[in-house]
């Protein structure tokens, strides 16, 4: 197959779409490269509908390959890539989220999209390249989607002249040192997905970044369309979930507008009870038809859900009435409590309406940090946030089989929201682990976990300078010019709405963003309004949080470990470690501590209590201590010779007490004064030209 390609200059790097060089049996195959990063993007679309499918069965996978970075997996026993890393899972979500709403509603064709990293330049994020490649592969496959879709990353850095500026396609280093790491995906007409971590940037900076991103998105979309024309793909027909006409007639004949109107409620249970009451009566009404298999309970359920959804949207658009009676910009009742658990290092309970999250902070030694090995970057994480969403949080029965993609994504979002305020290791050397347990959920549990984590960190004594709060904004639109933005969306508003726009930040600015939509895209104008209202809501939440705990507790929990630091000269690190680790193992065992030594000699001693920490610290100080003439020591006799006794001054350093220096009287045999293992008080009299220590016990008797 002849290779055909197009190229585009993206912020100084060549973005290239190529098809033909690497070919597969997939419906669409594209190799996309940006500099030395190369992604193989493939898609397969089944022509027939998936049997009994009641949702769009699309699967997206991002495949990391260690060879892409010239690496061999670190495990001594397993070299082949196994389960995907958290980064691979997050990137898979990053590709899926903007693509999914572009397919027709009700489509039930099986679709699989795979992005495989063949080469990584270790400078820019391959995930952005993968989004563009997957869109191009769908175009070549003739996918029935409202593409093309393109993505770019935007950074906010300080240039060589000290000026802050937005940059397109920043490197890993620029993202680390800068104030913004923003990923934006969209079509030529609108933005469809946003993901960001930030260091308290303003809403104005964020909007400028979004506008800059969409400018480049339009250019990349045009390049994809130019690329697709080279192949003239045949458009596939979407298989739409069939409707049951018998069920529709039965539903319309029985369920009235007033019945649908009655499905509302202040609480989730009240809403569900009203919903189930109507569904149950409809099922009883048409019991014979259901038994005759003309239609099923599921058909009636889907029709009622659609009717309730349409009614909810209409009330909001025409009357600005929400399900629970709130105003469009009204937040549900808030409450906060800290120190709710007796033995944990920090804990907090945050409640917003029926959503309640318990967050626990645990402090550990520097050595407890997580070592992450991925395809392109190896890192050490000393701040980790894990989000848990058990089935009881929504009153359901489901098996627990470890964190799913959603839980990993929500945990990462909350982690990014607080990362900018976590103190440096030099200021606070602890490893920090927060876990958010979602106890009850009626929407926006991820943003509740941000609030709970902030409170829990302060309760644990982690010196974050100020609180971080999160809020989820929603959107209802008629598809034309009429739209309403909702503050603090609850579950049904999220499910039936057109946007879930999560914004987290402090009083100083935004720290994290995440936006997903169910329409074809939204404008910058809508995003500006949503950001402005989110800021107002964020300040209201921060008011409540600050009343519960205005600042970090001055002391750590008595159950938290104590960390003491000491600077060990680089040339003496080997002395602290000892031969084969003998010395450091002895200290840790006898003192009951853990010791972590950095390359520059900065040493962290983590102890369960002050006494054990002090004992280990003194031990290390003795090892690195350089004796001076005139110093007095309580040493241990290590060897006895005819001419004197050798005494260990400090661990690893010993000197000689000549027999004439053992007593003021004449000594015939050393054993008359000391025996092996005795403790002997000595004074350092001289350090000779060979660095040997000459000691005297006699000098201490005067």
Our estimate of the beta-strand percent is 25-35%
Report mean pLDDT, rounded to a whole number: 92
Q: How many angstroms does the end-to-end distance come to?
A: 98 Å
Major sheet size, sense and barrel closure:
8 strands, antiparallel
Number of domains: 5
Structure report:
This protein starts with a strand and ends in a 6-residue tail after the last strand. The chain is elongated, with a radius of gyration of 33 Å. By secondary structure, the protein is α+β, with helices and mostly antiparallel strands. It folds into five domains: 4-229, Ribosomal Protein S5, domain 2 (2-Layer Sandwich), CATH 3.30.230; 245-319; 334-548, GHMP Kinase, N-terminal domain (Ribosomal Protein S5, domain 2), CATH 3.30.230; 562-624, Ribosomal Protein S8, Chain: A, domain 1 (2-Layer Sandwich), CATH 3.30.1370; 632-700, Nucleic acid-binding proteins (OB fold (Dihydrolipoamide Acetyltransferase, E2P)).
Features:
Ribosomal Protein S5, domain 2; 30% helix; 29 strands; 16 helices; 702 residues; 5 domains; alpha+beta; six-stranded mixed β-sheet; eight-stranded antiparallel β-sheet
SSE order and pairing:
Blueprint: E1 4-10, E2 13-19, E3 28-34, E4 37-49, E5 58-63, H1 86-99, E6 109-119, H2 126-140, E7 150-158, E8 164-168, H3 172-177, E9 180-186, E10 191-201, H4 203-229, H5 245-254, H6 257-261, H7 268-285, H8 287-291, H9 297-319, E11 334-338, E12 346-352, E13 355-364, E14 370-373, E15 378-381, E16 383-388, H10 405-419, E17 431-440, H11 445-459, E18 469-477, E19 483-487, H12 491-496, E20 499-505, E21 510-517, H13 524-548, E22 562-567, H14 573-577, H15 582-591, E23 594-597, E24 602-607, H16 610-624, E25 632-641, E26 644-650, E27 653-658, E28 679-687, E29 693-696
Parallel strand pairs: 5-6, 16-17, 27-29
Antiparallel strand pairs: 1-2, 2-3, 3-4, 4-6, 7-8, 7-9, 9-10, 10-21, 11-12, 12-13, 13-17, 14-15, 18-19, 18-20, 20-21, 22-24, 23-24, 25-26, 25-28, 26-27, 28-29
Helix pairs in contact: 1-2, 1-10, 2-4, 4-13, 7-9, 10-11
